[in-house]
């Protein structure tokens, strides 16, 4: 698209409009020039569509740590292709994914969204994901560029690191993705790098991304991750998201133009790049861009099978004492299932990764459906582990008897009275987010009434919880039960912009419906005064609006544990299913500790004491503490595995799938063993990246139901291009797959390097007992490079490099030495 076209045909107001957005999910159309709007949607583990409020059901894939655990580039490329089809069915042509930040600490709220702690593995996984997505014409938006590795003070914190750490670790996966897959869009992170916000950083966006890496696509901000007008435009940020824009308005842009802090030619450059991108996405997907705009849901047996396979391939078998797994009929007749996640729908982390799944297979359902004949399965809770009370959509019907509850919007008259109803919707979720949708016709202040009938299947006390960003009250059978309206306590709900969960307990009768009414308003309560008479706001005005209603049966916690122990004593084996939930791992805040929430650790220890055949299955996006490791027989890391979680877990437990997953990160024994410790939070506005670690389980670890051996290792070298082949033989009794990992140890040339660096991996699939296959691994100059801070270049030193080949960083089966005869440097890709 030529500059003359931009100057001659697009008015200044239209140029400004193009650099912002009209809403949360679309680019700005220019009807008079037939420039369409193109739509984007959140990933990265599924495509939610263009509404938080009334989401169209979607397929939920496993989280990024699960994907990385496959070590299978072909499979991840397939996942990208799958997500492309999901994106198009939601009338979108841009997926806001993948996330390839570094899992610097497992406590990071979005750790589950990122592939690995290792920059090479992260970059290869991201490349395969992007390649699959874009092969079908859907634009990837790789994020968050760069160092969005924790959530604490994420919009302000300054990541303080050396240039070498920035290049070799945090930029490296983005660089690999650009080199191998060329994403069509980048999204900037919220924070700062060495003092400058990433969305305003010309060295990052222009110097590195465009000049060094030759990126030609668009750069967009994270949502509300733009902090001014001229700095971001001058740095190279094409698109401020979401809309309507806060900064790229005619008044503000013209103000900085008149002050000559921004040149008209810069506006033209940003618009040209954006229009080129819109044109390319329109030509690739005309049937989507010019389609009916409706969002739909895909489902078929083939789709479900792919989701199930993808989930199972990411599961990591961490421990298997006495070959307790797979569960077999000749050893187990009575199986106890215990744990807070067993019957819960824990499929994803929270925040922008969350979506409404078209269906969910819980672990209990999967195990029950997948069990061998005559296995007696019993269940008990054991303990709760929620942060917020579980959502209640499965127990609600509308006043007219439909599943869900009824949302009715009202405006406010001048005297404060409500108008007649403006719009009604039936929602099948008690998480109600209002940030990206409001019906037309509302006044500045407005009210939402959520009504329904709540029916439970057990008589007894029932605890309810109401959390808001805004103000709300809950009535049960017309009785005010929770007041989160008059006075509020700030909490971390809705990215830290809402309240804590206010709770109340009511007595409910089995199968007797009670009327539920939540009245919500978008306005905030008036300021309160503290004991000294100082005015204190109850809640800060927020960009987000919404509410959440939760609830569950009130239990005697001690009795719940004793019931679990008694069941364990009367069973042949126990499967405990626990871990975290989207309320513990989410965008907006970091985890407080490695510990499993609630009394899970106590329950696991008691179960193991009662029954030595106790297997622990953890659903979480990153590492958790396992003080009970030496007391249990089996440990299965199931991650967040998407809507097929239950079936995938069952497939591994019963041996229908031989696990082949490998850890993409090190599991520390305690918080002090996290490599980044103690620099886990922002302190006085800075996060110091001054990264030894005492692991619980090492990087690359993962067991199988069979055994493998390496032999016939051959190395062929041409300068820095090195090929390593190895024969992998299944020496066990059942079929299985295995990952071959190659680590490089650099020579001592006065520069400190990690002892081992992953530089290649490969996977052999479905080897029958006794069979073998050859794996081929390739190294190149990047496999031996480091960043020379004195010359600001990549450098390879002449010398002897040691190649460690095996099945994890601690299971090395063969060592080879290669010699590089000369040193050299370069910049760019």
UniProtKB/TrEMBL annotation:
Pathway, per record: Glycan metabolism; cellulose degradation
Domain PA14: 400-565
InterPro entries (UniProt xref): Cellulose_deg_GH3 (IPR050288), Fn3-like (IPR026891), GH (IPR017853), Glyco_hydro_3_AS (IPR019800), Glyco_hydro_3_C (IPR002772), Glyco_hydro_3_C_sf (IPR036881), Glyco_hydro_3_N (IPR001764), Glyco_hydro_3_N_sf (IPR036962)
Recorded GO MF terms: beta-glucosidase activity
Entry keywords, A to Z: Carbohydrate metabolism, Glycosidase, Hydrolase, Polysaccharide degradation
Catalytic activity, as annotated: Hydrolysis of terminal, non-reducing beta-D-glucosyl residues with release of beta-D-glucose
Organism listed in the record: Gymnopus androsaceus JB14
Keyword Methyltransferase attributed: no
EC numbers, comma separated: 3.2.1.21
Keyword Transcription regulation: no
An example Gene Ontology biological process: cellulose catabolic process
Record SMART domains: Fn3_like, PA14
Domain of life: Eukaryota
Family listed: Belongs to the glycosyl hydrolase 3 family.
Protein name per UniProt: beta-glucosidase
């Amino acid at each position: 698209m030529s500059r003359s076209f931009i100057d001659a045909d697009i008015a200044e107001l239209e140029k400004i409009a193009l650099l912002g957005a009209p809403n949360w999910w679309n680019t700005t159309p220019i009807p008079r020039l037939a420039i369409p709007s193109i739509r984007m949607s959140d990933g990265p583990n599924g495509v939610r569509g263009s509404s938080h409020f009334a989401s169209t059901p979607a397929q939920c894939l496993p989280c990024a740590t699960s994907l990385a655990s496959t070590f299978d580039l072909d499979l991840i490329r397939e996942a990208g292709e799958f997500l492309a089809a999901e994106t198009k069915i939601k009338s979108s042509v841009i997926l806001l994914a993948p996330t390839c930040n570094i899992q610097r600490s497992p406590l990071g709220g979005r750790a589950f969204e990122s592939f690995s702690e290792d920059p090479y593995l992260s970059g290869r996984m991201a490349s395969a994901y992007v390649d699959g997505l874009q092969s079908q014409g859907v634009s990837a938006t790789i994020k968050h560029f760069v160092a969005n590795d924790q959530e604490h003070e994420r919009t302000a914190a300054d990541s303080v690191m050396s240039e070498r750490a920035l290049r070799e670790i945090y930029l490296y996966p983005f660089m690999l993705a650009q080199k191998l897959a060329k994403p069509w869009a980048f999204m900037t992170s919220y924070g700062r790098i060495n003092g400058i916000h990433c969305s305003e950083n010309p060295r990052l966006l222009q110097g590195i991304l465009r000049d060094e890496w030759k990126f030609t696509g668009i750069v967009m901000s994270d949502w509300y991750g733009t902090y001014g007008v001229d700095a971001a435009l001058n740095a190279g940020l094409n698109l401020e998201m979401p809309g309507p824009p806060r900064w790229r308005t005619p008044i503000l842009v013209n103000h900085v133009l008149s002050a000559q802090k921004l040149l008209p030619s810069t506006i033209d450059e940003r618009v040209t790049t954006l229009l080129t991108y819109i044109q390319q996405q329109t030509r690739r997907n005309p049937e989507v861009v010019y389609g009916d705009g409706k969002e739909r849901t895909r489902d078929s047996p083939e789709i479900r099978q792919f989701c199930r396979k993808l989930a199972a391939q990411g599961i990591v078998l961490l421990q298997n004492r006495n070959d307790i797994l797979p569960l077999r009929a000749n050893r187990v007749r009575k199986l106890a299932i215990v744990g807070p996640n067993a019957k819960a729908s824990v499929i994803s982390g929270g925040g922008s990764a969350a979506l409404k799944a078209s269906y969910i297979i819980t672990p209990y359902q999967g195990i029950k459906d997948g069990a061998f004949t005559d296995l007696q399965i019993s269940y008990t809770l054991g303990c709760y582990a929620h942060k917020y009370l579980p959502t209640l959509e499965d127990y609600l019907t509308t006043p007219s008897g439909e599943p869900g509850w009824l949302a009715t919007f009202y405006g406010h008259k001048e005297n404060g009275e409500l108008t007649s109803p403006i719009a009604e919707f039936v929602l099948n979720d008690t998480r109600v987010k209002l940030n990206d949708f409001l019906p037309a016709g509302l006044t500045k202040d407005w009210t939402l009434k959520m009504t329904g009938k709540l029916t439970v299947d057990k008589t007894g006390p029932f605890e309810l919880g109401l959390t808001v960003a805004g103000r709300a009250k809950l009535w049960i059978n017309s009785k005010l039960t929770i007041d989160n309206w008059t006075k509020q306590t700030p909490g971390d709900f809705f990215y830290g912009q809402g309240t804590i969960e206010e709770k109340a307990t009511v007595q409910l009768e089995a199968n007797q419906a009670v009327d539920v009414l939540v009245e919500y308003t978008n306005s905030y309560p008036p300021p309160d005064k503290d004991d000294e008479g100082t005015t204190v706001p109850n809640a800060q005005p927020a960009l987000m609006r919404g509410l959440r209603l939760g609830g569950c049966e009130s239990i005697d916690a001690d009795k719940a544990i004793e019931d679990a122990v008694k069941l364990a004593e009367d069973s042949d084996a126990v499967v405990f299913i626990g871990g975290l939930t989207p309320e513990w791992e989410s965008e907006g805040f970091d985890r407080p500790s490695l510990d499993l929430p609630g009394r899970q650790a106590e329950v696991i220890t008691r179960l193991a004491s009662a029954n030595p055949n106790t297997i622990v299955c953890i659903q979480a996006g990153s590492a958790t503490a396992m003080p009970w490791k030496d007391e249990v027989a089996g440990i299965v890391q199931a991650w967040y595995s998407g809507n097929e979680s239950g079936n995938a877990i069952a497939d591994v437990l019963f041996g229908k799938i031989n696990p082949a997953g490998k850890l993409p990160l090190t599991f520390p024994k305690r918080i002090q063993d996290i490599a980044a410790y103690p620099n886990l939070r922002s302190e006085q506005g800075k996060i110091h990246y001054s990264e030894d670690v005492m692991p619980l389980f090492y990087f690359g670890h993962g067991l199988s139901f069979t055994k493998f051996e390496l032999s016939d290792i051959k190395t062929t070298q041409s300068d820095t291009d090195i090929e390593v082949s190895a024969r992998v033989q299944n020496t066990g009794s059942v079929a299985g797959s295995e990952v071959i990992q190659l680590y490089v140890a650099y020579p001592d040339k006065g520069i400190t390097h990690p002892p081992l660096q992953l530089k290649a991996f490969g996977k052999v699939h479905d080897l029958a007992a006794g069979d073998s296959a050859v794996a081929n691994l390739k190294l190149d100059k990047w496999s031996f490079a480091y960043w020379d801070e004195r010359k600001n270049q990549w450098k390879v030193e002449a010398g002897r490099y040691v190649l460690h080949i095996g099945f994890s960083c601690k299971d090395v089966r063969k060592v080879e030495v290669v010699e590089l005869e000369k040193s050299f440097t370069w910049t760019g890709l």
